[in-house]
Known about the structure:
Helix 1 packs antiparallel against helix 2 (34-47). The longest helix is centred in the middle third of the chain and has 19 residues, at 12-30. By secondary structure, the protein is an all-alpha fold. It is built from 3 helices and no strands. The N and C termini lie far apart (44 Å).
Amino acid sequence: MVNSDAIETPDPRRGVLVASLRSRYQAAVRHNDADSKQALFKEAVYLGIQPEEFTDDC
């Protein structure tokens, strides 16, 4: 018998959140905006998203 509590279902919002963080991070990099990058890192921590998930492509 499979324990249904142990099966993780993907959160459809997570992909949208990561894409939003990635887009805003890339804009902050283009504008050399350290304050915006710091705010995005704080937002990611709040959302439980690791920075590597949205900064790798930059």
